[in-house]
């Protein structure tokens, strides 16, 4: 496994691979790897000759009051985990390499970036889209693997790749969950024991809603209310939003039909958690 | 010469070239080719095995009151000129190919885009940066050739390429001028005979200023005033701006020193013309 901190070095490695017609799978992360990330790495490794993992806690996707400085940085453990998965290359750039003095460019995905989580995290998705545009240009992978847990990010990055004509394919992989249903997230470790216990209410509420939909309920307001009430009744979580949207373009739905995302974001103290499930109705 | 209107076809051609280790030179244009464009094409052809010309009148870089619909479209003549220069590929995409339904992404170069011409053409440089980001991803040229006449565009696109880590080099080529000094531009054909006669005042005023600088004047306000007064005295052109800026970052200069751009934009009727000269002082 090669750990590179420079663009020249990572590109030299990938250029060699490309010359041998080896396909390149790419998993962009902020590190603090958990089973969710590992599932992406396994799939990337399985489907490609070369698997590249990037680890970069991207400052531009954090708001001024957010957890950039306290975001977990666990390089040693991340490297061990990556080694176990037989990852070929870790790209581990510095902030200065990614945003040198004089840096001025942003990539914005209109409409999709200022709704849902974007309403509570202004600038977040522009930061994400910009850093991923850079990583795609640096690494030029055949396929990028993203976790469905970050549903809005998935929609935005698919749009980015399509709109700016990147040659990379985007594969979305299922959310990996703890035994009680809580979606794996690097932020779960911020939770107290009591908060951690309550946090699984998000997934349970989404499943409850899915059950009701499967029993024939199609009124989206009623479905969202059900989720909200369930979270409020069973936990101290403060809801940012509960949404029912079209899975392709994130447009709000009044009626549950087609490809639907049920999405939720809630806070326990300073810790903000998100979750979603996708439902397909004919 | 191959004229392609699809991404698949142009990429197939370029992929073949790349496999044979042929370098690719690229000249992005909006067509209505003149000697300025041809000088870029000649240099691209001379320095590369393959020369690609793109012709696309990009709607997103025109403001709502600007000349998008009346911008000259001269496909037949452009093809003839390109053939004469032994261009290998013309990429001639449709608006729908570049901006299909659902398109949402923009690339913005902060600070550089809302000054000078950007102040008079809001959104213009975001449109330019976005379409060039797309073209660079579609074509992946080794080198892109730009004309120094569009000085602000040159600075912005160099920044774009550097900030988003495109693998393309950017070469700036000297402005080509009519015998009386007027910078070649597709918009010159909008001018009446009287306006056309007057328009060379822009370059003459810039040269006058350069002479004064060479005679020791360093006060930028005085230099700008000289240019303004000269244009006002000798023509009916309405000045948008006269500027003296750092050639690398477009920051305004109070003192003429280092790499300096003297820039000017003025209108004759609906026709907006720009020009600039670069001066290097130790």
Layout of strands and helices, then pairs:
The structure is a homodimer of 282-residue chains.
Chain A: E1 2-4, H1 7-19, E2 24-29, H2 35-47, E3 50-55, H3 75-84, E4 89-91, H4 95-98, E5 105-109, H5 117-120, H6 124-139, E6 143-147, H7 151-163, E7 169-173, H8 193-199, H9 201-214, H10 220-234, E8 238-246, E9 258-268, E10 271-281
Parallel strand pairs in A: 1-4, 2-3, 2-6, 3-4, 6-7
Antiparallel strand pairs in A: 8-9, 9-10
Helix pairs in contact in A: 6-7, 9-10
Description:
2 copies of one chain form a homodimer. Chain A has 282 residues and is of the alpha/beta class. Chain A has 2 domains: 2-173, Rossmann fold (3-Layer(aba) Sandwich); 186-281, Pantoate--beta-alanine Ligase, Chain: A,domain 2. In chain A, 39% of the residues lie in helices and 23% in strands. Chain A has helices spanning 7-19, 35-47, 75-84, 95-98, 117-120, 124-139, 151-163, 193-199, 201-214, 220-234; strands spanning 2-4, 24-29, 50-55, 89-91, 105-109, 143-147, 169-173, 238-246, 258-268, 271-281. In chain A, the strands form 2 sheets. In chain A, strands 1-4-3-2-6-7 form a 6-stranded parallel beta sheet, with helices on both faces. In chain A, helix 6 crosses helix 7 and helix 9 (201-214) runs antiparallel to helix 10 (220-234). The mean pLDDT of chain A is 97. Chain A binds chain B through residues 7, 102-112, 129-130, 133-134, 137-138, 159-160, 163-167, 249, and chain B through 7, 102-112, 129-130, 133-134, 137-138, 159-160, 163-167, 249. Strand 5 (105-109) of chain A pairs antiparallel with strand 5 (105-109) of chain B.
């Amino acid at each position: 496994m090669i750990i590179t901190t420079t663009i020249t070095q990572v590109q030299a490695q990938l250029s060699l691979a490309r010359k041998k017609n080896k396909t390149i799978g790419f998993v962009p992360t902020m590190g603090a790897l958990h089973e969710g990330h590992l599932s992406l790495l396994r799939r990337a490794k399985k489907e490609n000759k070369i698997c590249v993992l990037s680890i970069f806690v991207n400052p531009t996707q954090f708001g001024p009051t957010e957890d950039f400085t306290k975001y977990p940085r666990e390089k040693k453990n991340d490297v061990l985990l990556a080694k176990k998965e037989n990852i070929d290359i870790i790209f581990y750039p510095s902030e200065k390499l990614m945003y040198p003095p004089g840096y001025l460019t942003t990539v914005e995905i209109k409409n999709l970036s200022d709704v849902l989580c974007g309403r509570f995290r202004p600038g977040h998705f522009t930061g994400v889209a910009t850093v991923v545009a850079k990583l795609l240009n640096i690494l030029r992978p055949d396929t990028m693997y993203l976790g469905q847990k970050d549903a809005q990010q998935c929609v935005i990055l698919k749009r980015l790749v399509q709109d700016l004509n990147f040659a990379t394919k985007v594969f979305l992989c299922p959310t990996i969950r703890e035994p009680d249903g809580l979606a794996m997230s690097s932020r779960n470790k911020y939770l107290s024991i009591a908060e951690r216990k309550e946090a699984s209410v998000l997934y349970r509420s989404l499943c409850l809603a899915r059950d009701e939909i499967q029993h024939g309920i199609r009124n989206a307001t009623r479905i969202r209310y059900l989720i909200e009430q369930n979270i409020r009744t069973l936990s101290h979580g403060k809801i940012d939003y509960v949404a029912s949207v079209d899975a392709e373009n994130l447009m709000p739905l009044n009626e549950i039909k087609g490809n639907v995302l049920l999405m939720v974001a809630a806070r326990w103290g300073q810790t903000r958690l998100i979750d979603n499930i996708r439902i397909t109705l004919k």
